[in-house]
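To: structure subgroup
Subject: Chain for Friday's discussion

All,

I'm putting the inputs and outputs inline so they're searchable in the archive.
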Amino acid sequence: MPATDLPLLIEAARKAGEIATRFSGAQAQRWDKPDGAGPVTEADLAVNDMLEQMLPTARPDYGWLSEETEDSPDRLSRDRAFIIDPIDGTRSFAEGSRTWAHSLAVTEHGEVTAAVIYLPLRDLFYAAAKGQGATLNGAPIRASEASTLGTATILAARPNMNSHHWRDGEVPEFDRAYRPSLAYRMALVGEGRFDGMLTLRPSWEWDIAAGDLIIREAGGMCTDRAGQPLRFNNAQPRLNGVLATAQGIHTQLSSRLDPNGPGIAP
């Protein structure tokens, strides 16, 4: 239940921050995962080990999906599941930057019901529970009230601006900004500091589950690139991109995307 799961996630994220900050960023051992899956550090694994011990012990009937744990189909038979990214923004962490986050979520029948995104080195703690709103460091947050795409600022990596993603090859005009952690980008939209974010490539559930709830509880909209609500704990834990914005500009932005543009391969 969201009311009891959120305090558990908050406690776990705090412990994750204590572990991760014992490592010294660029000095932490780092290696590349097979098949071009990106980097991992000893800090990722240390945080994951703690979370994988703490959370399933507290909720033994929940499934488990984490970037740093080999996936098991067992989670698909569970009504509820943890979806965890021990450190989102591993490259940022390994470079000694402060812009990385712990991203923890609980899903029930595919919907996120409790979530936290914690950036220890920036002292930013975002949290949400279904029906209870979203907070930053304990204070309520609200998504932007932007109503015009042309004056909006959208968080997006440069490849999202390639013309093949957009109807008739016409990229809409808006101010573009960027932050290295996908979870942090989503939290910033929930906070209202930016009007939206988008990523048009297939997206791992652990990168976006927590942000989905934080944005929705803050009054924003969060869908895949085709405009469909995000559903989690799927057999293939990748979603068809993410489009998360203020309510007033979501349709303006989504209607400009090419529905036949690159997405998840069959």
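Points worth raising on Friday:
The chain has two domains: 2-138, 149-254.
The chain has six helices and 16 strands.

D.
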